[in-house]
Write a structure and sequence with these properties.
single chain, 153 residues, alpha+beta, 5-stranded mixed β-sheet, 7 helices, 15% strand
Amino acid sequence: MTHEMTVNDVRYSVDEDADTSLLQVLRENLGLKGTRFGCGVGLCGACFVLLDGQPTPSCDTPLWAAEGKEVVTIEGLGGPGDLHPLQQAFLDEQAAQCGYCLSGVLISAAALLTRDPAPDEAEVAAALDRNLCRCGAQRRMIRAVVRAAKDQQ
């Protein structure tokens, strides 16, 4: 069955089973490897994408749930030569260690800055609460999000 969705402002028709995970479609069908597989049950945040503007675990979101919706992956936030302010702030603050969780963290942070362009550290921490980082870079990540918010003002 064919499913229609928009990913990073590009319209796609995907011929997959409706219950195939959005993560699998993004990585295997569309070649968007920035979204990571972590826990597989939507608890760690490594696979987060924006689904109609909301941070959503793509590992346990079936393809049918994304049909007709806007999906934004880490590749859709920005890239070389056109970094999103969050990406630049994370570089400036050296907010990543291994980087495995980073795409999901940046997605959650982007959703936060859309809702609240001037969050404080507590609000950033709450917004990133669902994103697990085992490297211990959370404080640097929080500082980077606050910095990006200030840089955008």
